[in-house]
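Lab manual, section 2.4: Encoding a predicted structure.

Procedure: take the sequence of the chain (461 residues), apply the prediction step described in section 2.3, and record the output as structure tokens. A sample record is shown.
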Amino acid sequence: MTSSQEELLPGTRRALLHRLAVAQSEGRAPSMVAAVVRDGRVVWHGARSSVDGEVPDENVQYRIGSITKTFTAVLVLRLRDEGLLDLGDRLEKHLPGTSAGEATVAELLAHTSGLAAESPAPWWERSPGSLRPELSDVLGDHPFLHPSGRRFHYSNPGYTLLGALVERLRGAPWEDVLRREVLEPLGLNRTSGQPSAPHAGGWAVHPWADVLLPEPAEDLGRMAPAGQLWSTTGDLARFAVFLARGDERVLSAETVREMRAPAAPAEAADLADGASYGLGLQVQQRDGRMLVGHSGSLPGFLANLTLGVADDVAAVVLANCTSGPFLSMVGADLVRIVAEAEPRIPEPWRPLPEADPSVLELAGQWYWGTYAFGLRLTSGGGVSLEPLSGKGRGARFRANGDGTWTGLEGYYAGELLAPVRRPDGSLSHLDLGSFVFTRQPYEEAADVPGGVDPEGWRGIG
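Recorded output:
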């Protein structure tokens, strides 16, 4: 990944700096640093500091808190892709003996296991991890607050269990596995479990006075997979590129798309806010665009990574204060500024390299009952089926190699689309999960369930 400060227009760069400066000033952060990525490259970096002459750069470490969870989720999905576990497996199958064994791997990843949000007292973020040496110390006597799978309830102990799962199946400490399987392949050389100079110090800012108090930087011990990591804007920018595109050395593009898809039932307040959760990633609708990423906080530090997938723009924002600035809003605004000021230029239209006549025959207008749809050939041998009214159930389908296609999204995700031919080889209709699509509404010659009235269409006199 290369870095070029000249990629953005001067007005865009000034707008980004202004947003960062306002956030640092109004949020009263001792320092704040940010980076913006577009098309796989860092195109802007900015920093503000309360100390003259000490402006952090892209190599200064900050603690990133719960962004660590996304790294842990990557490790778990690697295990899934290797066939060592299934997301539907109960934890007990791979990590026996915990009091949370009934939760599935997917529920732990999506925070739908029903586990408590925090470990038993004392507050784990501000106390030594040595106080909780065993998983039983993290879970406590009553680990479940809700039925598994019924609701989203953010759980730090849940990700502690996922880290222990990684250790059990890999036979090595979580951080060693992370370094070998994710950090080194992606070139994240400034991401680590312990701070490495240069790094920022963590501060608490008094809510009613402009004075500071140093925050302790505790080793989280068993709970490290939920929030231990330190990183930089440079490393997190590279990680954002990975979350957008995948990397076959770590996870495929298909698997990172799976991570980005909502996987948790949203509560009423979350629905109103457009918020959901995927597999180790927060998902949110804001300003008309889908944003994915994660926020993090530990005493003395705030962090945010925000990715606008459709715009191929990502932002990373780090600050060394316990509270004050809302970095998720800052990250979303940095993405919006670039996406709106310099919209993505689409690739030139190009014709398909070839088209199978039997597939080309399917293109055009189809009817499910009286609903009109259009089928279009797409790249890679796929097709799309969209309602001509612009409203209703539509989807893209991938080719299966046998003349059928499988739905990729929405109502038809996983459903089979197949052309049905008459004995003479002519095309009769399309079958989509038992729905019959015909060339004309309720076409008499097609196999429409329930049949078609032999008197046909009529008026009412």
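Check your result against the sample. The chain has a mean pLDDT of 94.
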